């Protein structure tokens, strides 16, 4: 890790920029050094270096030592400093967890807010996953679910009932895992014009989003109606694939492709879904001018019949 990265992280834990630079300089010196040497090693201005060192001493991150040639400074060992910071941070979190709920008024309105960047979408999805206490449902493409796995695994370790639906192969699945096959992930993405991501915790809050290579849309909500719809959507997908597995040897693939009612559900209805670039996309199999299906409903690579 670079010196710059270390100083940035120390600032995140409460040190000022000058304090972080001075502390890193003390650690790197390996011996007691005076203020002039700290300024030279750290880039802290000489006019403020002793004030900065005094603040480090005040917070217990450094100590003054007396020598024949004047006052020097040594750092609190990094392992000890980090453990002290961890204790202080945990103590502060414990106080806030107890006190903030007492100040919180009952919500008068339900929250819905937009998420317009992939980073924002995934961070909010992590928030929802981390908040789960009894059940967590996650649906998405492998590259997006992968970013959430550390948080999902922690939820599972804490006893949360986790179910995941992944549009594609996942070599390291988490929770009660379902690989989405009906319809094929590539066909779903083509019809929608984007990848989907749903994260639902405790039927209480949800993140719903869509992603392309360069665009993201999405929302967070604790509105019961929207959360329930997202919750049921994921459960329906799981149930659908359980039925498919159960009746795989009884012609399910052929039924999926040939059944008139299912074919009707795959036909375009209403306005087409529009891609983020504004170009219209069909929500079902594309047709030529005579209405004949252009989309191939043949077998995919693993021999499973594909259907839109």
UniProtKB/TrEMBL annotation:
SUPFAM superfamilies: Winged helix' DNA-binding domain (SSF46785). Residues 286-302 have a biased composition (Acidic residues). Residues 10-78 form the Transcription regulator TrmB N-terminal domain. InterPro entries: TrmB-like, Tscrpt_reg_TrmB_C, Tscrpt_reg_TrmB_N, WH-like_DNA-bd_sf, WH_DNA-bd_sf. Residues 117-209 form the Transcription regulator TrmB C-terminal domain. Residues 267-308 are annotated as: Disordered. It comes from the Bacteria. Signal peptide: none annotated. This is Transcriptional regulator. It comes from Pseudonocardia alni (Amycolata alni).
